[in-house]
Amino acid sequence: MLGPVILAASRSDKMRRFVSAAPGTKQVVDRFIAGETVDQVVPIVEDAADKGLEVTLDVVGEDITTPAQAEAARDAYLELVERLKDLGLGTRAEMSVKLSMFGQALEGGHELALANVRPVVEAAAAIGTTVTLDAEDHTTLDSMFAIHEELRKDFPETGCVIQSYLFRTEDDARRLAAAGSRVRIVKGAYKEPASVAYQDKAEIDKAYVRITRILMEGEGYPMIGSHDPRLIAIAQELGRQAGRKLDEYEFQMLYGIRSDEHIRLAAEGHRMRVYTAYGTDWYGYFMRRLAEKPANLLFFGRSILTKG
């Protein structure tokens, strides 16, 4: 299994330098990363809107080591909100944030992350959109869920992410599937030990289906994060069984992956949101995309062997 090896490499400074210097890296990174600046990502949001798609925007970067860096991450999102406001795109684009970017891993990180993310959530609400808190490795989740609960007191549409490969997630889903909640279900893309997570793909997929059923039968708003045609079809059937209309849940897929499926689902009347990452600190995000799907790794392998 190459996935765990690649996930370990995502934390290696040596591998970061090698991958960044490889001649074909930019070609592959551009497939998954929409750009480095707000100016580069705005046309992508506009194009998605023209195609009947929505987006969630992620300013990539997780290796935060100082409070000043966490504040810079906050300011990057605030800049994004201002651009969306100026262009009238607030209702077409939400934001996804990793609390590690807001200082969660630093001393006093829980309070620091909450203090930094709150102004972003407030600014998003002011232009008619929302923020979703991304799930990271299992050691961060109690803090993430506590911050999510705190933010929802004032901003009830604040979303969160749960991961099907973790044993705890079915219980989390039952707790979160309440009226007004917004919950994205994904498989999970961090290297987790067998003590807390399923290691077998078939078991992860079975858990994904069980959790999707919980969300569909609940009173909240499920967000189905998957590129797997089988899981997408199952989610559609579970939505029908639960009596949900097509606008009472949505699908989410990554920018650069299965773009034709984005259009197909939107044409069928589904809400379809494209997870769109941008920024200069792309390495950790990029490596997890390689780990998720062997085809991505093969594409990258061919590219780094290409000169120029």
UniProtKB/TrEMBL annotation:
Record-listed E.C. numbers: 1.5.5.2
Record-linked InterPro entries: FAD-linked_oxidoreductase-like, PRODH_bac_arc, Proline_DH_dom, Proline_oxidase
Domain Proline dehydrogenase: residue ranges: 45-298
Cofactor(s) essential for the protein: FAD
Catalytic activity reported: L-proline + a quinone = (S)-1-pyrroline-5-carboxylate + a quinol + H(+)
SUPFAM superfamilies tied to this protein: FAD-linked oxidoreductase
Pathway: Amino-acid degradation; L-proline degradation into L-glutamate; L-glutamate from L-proline: step 1/2
UniProt keyword terms in alphabetical order: FAD, Flavoprotein, Nucleotide-binding, Oxidoreductase, Proline metabolism
Protein name according to UniProt: proline dehydrogenase
Organism: Streptomyces anulatus (Streptomyces chrysomallus)
